[in-house]
């Protein structure tokens, strides 16, 4: 009734299998808080849901479906969730069907990202379920960037009519190989759903999205493509050797010099792609410390920002003493500070008016300022999540 009152017409195609036929319903793509309509459309199935999401109006209603809660950032919670899914899916008791959004986060529906294998561990048949919003104006997509939930809800309510299409695909029966390999099972189900939706698949995960969002928030050079940078470095054998992280302050490289610095040649497509990512339009060269800062970010992603900043001081200046302009450059690339804020921080950190500051100078200053507390914790710069 809530959806109908808001002008949302929900149409259902196909037949929902019984719990005996398919104990688990696999739903994708996940792109909006409005996807919660699937709970009602599937006759109050038990959804896998973040505990933090249960504090709103829709969350209170979902509580009645006996959901399986997960604290997404807690590894132990993930294991407990898998155990609970297995118990419910294989139980002879009259549990509701378990409903999962295997992507684990919201996307813009242009592709299907990596399915998490948690819902496939039981090795039981699953029924794929697709969601579409065939509207002229997209007022529902809630992703890492863009309008917030309240704005999207308002935009949706201002539409005279909105549509949501839910399609139940045939039950997918796993092979013996898939039963033994949940990741294979998840990939194959994703392929079936992607074909039905007419969209490609992309091997990105929630953790990848979080890594990219944090990189963009901090201002890491090439942050939007940091996952691709990680893959390219792995192809070049650099993720373990770290040979490309030796400080090269002020180094501008052409393609030949860049490839040589990475220990390869200009014919290597991975080196060429890395070069293209960091190439400056103004001169066609790569400022090597910018690339190195992104590589350090990937290597230190679980460390506090302070550790990254310590490396940055040496990457951009061999002596570790940064002038005002150098610090403004560094602060904009690993602290997300604008030029004005970085300049103000430099002035306050340079207590002796030396016209340069060291890493220790800045840390001594930052420890006394609440606005820089995020530097000292490894998980404080997390973006909003859905």
TrEMBL record:
GO terms for biological process: phospholipid biosynthetic process. It holds the Pfam family Acyltransferase. Keywords: Acyltransferase, Lipid biosynthesis, Lipid metabolism, Membrane, Phospholipid biosynthesis, Phospholipid metabolism, Transferase, Transmembrane, Transmembrane helix. The keyword Cell inner membrane does not apply. The lineage of its organism: Eukaryota, Metazoa, Ecdysozoa, Arthropoda, Hexapoda. Belongs to the 1-acyl-sn-glycerol-3-phosphate acyltransferase family. Residues 337-372 form the EF-hand domain. SMART domains: PlsC (SM00563). CDD domains: LPLAT_LPCAT1-like (cd07991). This is (African queen) hypothetical protein. Pathway: Phospholipid metabolism; Lipid metabolism; phospholipid metabolism. It comes from Danaus chrysippus (African queen). One of its GO terms (cellular component) is endoplasmic reticulum. One of its GO terms (molecular function) is calcium ion binding. InterPro entries: EF-hand-dom_pair, EF_hand_dom, LPCAT1-like, Plipid/glycerol_acylTrfase. Its main location: membrane. The keyword Transferase applies. It is found in: Membrane.
């Amino acid at each position: 009734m809530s959806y109908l009152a808001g002008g949302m017409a929900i149409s259902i195609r196909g037949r929902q299998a019984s719990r005996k036929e398919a104990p688990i319903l696999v739903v994708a793509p996940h792109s909006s808080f409005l996807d919660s309509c699937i709970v009602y459309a599937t006759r109050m199935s038990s959804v896998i849901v973040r505990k933090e999401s249960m504090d709103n109006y829709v969350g209170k209603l979902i509580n009645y479906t006996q959901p399986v809660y997960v604290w997404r950032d807690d590894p132990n919670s993930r294991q407990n969730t898998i155990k609970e899914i297995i118990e419910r899916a294989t139980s002879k008791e009259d549990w509701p069907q378990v409903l999962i959004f295997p992507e684990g986060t919201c996307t813009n529906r242009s592709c299907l990202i990596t399915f998490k294998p948690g819902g496939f561990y039981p090795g039981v048949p699953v029924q794929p379920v697709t969601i579409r919003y065939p509207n002229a104006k997209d007022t529902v997509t809630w992703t890492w960037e863009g309008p917030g939930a309240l704005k999207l809800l308002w935009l949706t309510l201002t539409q005279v009519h909105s549509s949501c299409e839910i399609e139940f695909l045939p039950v997918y029966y796993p092979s013996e190989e898939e039963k033994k390999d949940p990741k294979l099972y998840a990939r194959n189900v994703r392929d079936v759903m992607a074909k039905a939706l007419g969209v490609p698949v992309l091997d990105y995960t929630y953790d990848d999205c979080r890594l990219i969002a944090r990189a963009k928030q901090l201002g890491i050079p090439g942050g939007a493509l940091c996952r691709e940078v990680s893959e390219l470095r792995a192809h070049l054998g650099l993720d373990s050797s770290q040979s490309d992280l030796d400080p090269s302050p002020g180094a501008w490289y052409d393609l030949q010099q860049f490839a040589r610095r990475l220990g390869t040649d200009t014919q290597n497509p991975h080196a060429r792609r890395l070069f293209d990512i960091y190439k400056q339009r103004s001169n066609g060269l790569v400022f090597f410390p910018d690339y190195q800062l992104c590589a350090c970010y990937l290597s230190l992603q679980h460390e506090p920002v302070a550790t990254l900043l310590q490396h940055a001081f040496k990457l951009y200046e061999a002596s570790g003493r940064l002038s005002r302009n150098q610090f403004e450059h560094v602060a904009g690339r690993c602290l997300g500070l604008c030029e004005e804020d970085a300049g103000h921080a430099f002035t306050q950190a340079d207590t002796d008016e030396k016209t340069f500051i060291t890493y220790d100078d800045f840390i001594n200053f930052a420890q006394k300022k609440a606005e820089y507390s995020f530097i000292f914790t490894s998980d404080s710069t997390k973006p909003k999540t859905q």
